[in-house]
Amino acid sequence: MATSVGERTMVLQRERTPFENVNMQFDLSADRLQLDQNYRDFLKRPVRELLVNVTIKDRNGCLRSFEGYRIQHNNARGPYKGGLRYHPEVNLEEVRALASLMTWKCAVVNIPFGGGKGGISIDPSTLNEYEIQEVTRSFTRAISQFIGPQTDIPAPDVNTNAKVMGYLLDEYQRLHGFTPAVVTGKPLALGGSLGRNEATGRGVMFATREMLKANGDRIEGKSVVIQGFGNVGSHTAKYAHEMGAKVIGVSDAFAAFYDPKGLDVNKLWECQLRDGSIKNFDAQQAKISRDEILFTECDVLIPAALGEVITRGNANGVKARWVIEAANHPLTPEADLILTDKGVHVLPDIITNAGGVYVSYLEWVQNQNNFYWKEEEVNERLNDSMTSAFRNVHEVMVNENTNNPGQKFPCTYRRAAYMVAIKRVYEATKLRGL
Ligand code: GLU
């Protein structure tokens, strides 16, 4: 089947995997950089892939085993860096995609890390706290030879948090001695950084603010819809509200609410903290179906949950003018082109949600120095870095479009962000003599 969707005609014999989709984005920017095929092959391929058997004795003493992955995508610029995800949909191709996104993300915000990602194919809602701890310890033992402060540094991701990172730290310590810098996103009492928990959502809004500004607009008064109310979505809602935007729609895995007059963000938070979900938010408030949330009327749409939720099949239904990828790869390449053709500005994941890994970097620096900063200091650095990373990408985009007046398809934020990232990783690779 051939679908002409703008920038190129994509021939689909079958659906591409998430990793193939990320590599398609890579290639479209590599084309603009006229990057050699040999380097493309090298830069796309993960350096190392670990597939491990995660085994535990469950609460009843029964043996259970799960598939665990750690993909080390690229370390040309520094140790592999990236989160650890617990989700039933985790699989090798998904983790490969997420690992490579980390390479490009760390390069865009210019921190000295490469990219990696881990995941375990489990449904954490079926496990109790004891079992989550056992799963984390088993996984840590399985990969412990291959991680470390100068090798590979895990962090939280979907369905993992500071507590889980604490278990990882402890298990690693049993094997290798006290090493807080082996993991970031830890509890404060174990060497975590102030501001890390909030960092991704905060960074999302810093980047959004800059994008609107660069386009002669402003965040104040904008109506915002957020899909997902986990760590990223909930903090994004909080800072959107603090910046003067109006949060008019939110959803999580159980419910969705939409009210053009605005939702009470504090109440949503109270509900989330109390019930672990927004489902009991407000009986008076208009509930909509979760599937509708991405297609509601709003200025700014922020997918902040899982990958590939906006596709060729539904992208036309998006009504927002600005789409901010707080989740990793929420748009397929076709959806990206459809939205671009409609004149929607899309801010890509590798810059939008880089605030999390940026503050992970600050945490790692603090761990190495055994000296801890005030939260304002962390937030200020985050603001500066997100702002300059965005401005740099914006400048590359504008230059590309100015220098190529006859081009059929304009350079987008995604094209420019990948160009910045690829150039940096390529340069580090070349300087190593490779
Ligand atoms: N899981 C987050 C991400 O996808 C943060 C990774 C990190 O801090 O290493 O960017």
How would you describe what is shown here?
It contains 13 helices and 14 strands. The protein is α/β, with parallel strands linked by helices and 434 residues long. The protein folds into two domains: 5-178, Leucine Dehydrogenase, chain A, domain 1 (Rossmann fold); 199-347, Rossmann fold, CATH 3.40.50.720. A seven-stranded mixed β-sheet has the order 11-10-9-8-12-13-14, sandwiched between helices. Helix 3 packs across helix 13 and helix 6 packs across helix 7 (231-242). The longest helix is centred in the last third of the chain and has 29 residues, at 375-403. The chain starts with a strand and ends with a helix. 53% of the residues are buried. Residues 81-83, 105, 155, 157, 184-185, 328, 353, 356-357, 360 line the site of glutamic acid.
Summarize, please:
44% of the residues lie in helices and 17% in strands. By secondary structure, it is of the alpha/beta class.
How are the secondary structure elements laid out?
Blueprint: E1 2-4, E2 9-11, H1 18-33, H2 37-44, E3 48-57, E4 63-74, E5 80-86, H3 92-108, E6 115-120, H4 129-143, E7 152-156, H5 162-176, H6 196-214, E8 223-227, H7 231-242, E9 246-251, E10 256-258, H8 265-275, E11 287-288, E12 300-303, E13 322-324, H9 333-341, E14 345-347, H10 349-352, H11 354-369, H12 375-403, H13 413-431
Parallel strand pairs: 5-6, 5-7, 8-9, 8-12, 12-13, 13-14
Antiparallel strand pairs: 1-2, 3-4, 4-6, 9-10, 10-11
Helix pairs in contact: 1-3, 1-13, 3-13, 4-5, 6-7, 6-11, 6-12, 7-8, 11-12, 12-13
Glutamic acid binds near residues 105, 185, 328 and 357.
